[in-house]
Amino acid sequence: MILDRLSGSAAHESLHPLFPKAFAYLRAFDTSTADGKYELQGQDLVAIVQR
Prior knowledge:
The chain is an alpha+beta fold. The protein contains one helix and two strands, in the order H-E-E. The protein has a two-stranded antiparallel sheet. The longest helix is centred in the middle third of the chain and has 9 residues, at 19-27.
């Protein structure tokens, strides 16, 4: 588990090959995104938005 602020994500990106893409999605996240499951890299990397 990583406990940090998003602004510190660069320090963790090298820990897994999918982390750079995951953190980039979070940094660019639009709060108006509809609830749902979004494939960022097929089933290997998904984002689930729910309120």
